[in-house]
Amino acid sequence: MPKDHSSRAFGERTIGEPPDGALIARKLVETRILTVASRGFIDRYGLPQHPSEVANLPCIEFYDAANARPFEWESHRGQKVLLAQPSSRLMVSDVGAMLSACEAGAGIAQIMGLGSKHMMEEGTLVDLFPDWSGELFPLYALYPSRQHRATKVRASIEFTTELLERQT
Question: How many Cβ atoms are within 10 Å of 71's Cβ, its own excluded?
Fold first, then answer.
């Protein structure tokens, strides 16, 4: 999944490793990366047994604007890391579009575990490789200084941290 090295503005949140620079980065949470598909997709193409099989199945890739290319697909199982070359049917730059396309059966996608529990519980999406979901992806809050942190920035970070703790 993505390594976001793009520059971010004051008080924003970033997903992936924080950019180098003068901003202070506070890690809020790490989330698992899941490889998922809809039940309709599985009915049509079958249930893949191994992450390497995504190379032979339609996939939905997410475009990394910071690096001008799609995010790489990795599957982690303990210390083993498998790089996959997805067979891209569709490339998107919007998470909502990716989830909608995946739910509609357009292909396999890699998504963050954070915020996706309800889709798994409802059966909208299926985690294809639960034994290969060891990749962790960080979410950071970025702000300009520890010494002069505005009250609204501190409140935003505290609120986001509480919200994320309830999700994980």
Answer: 18
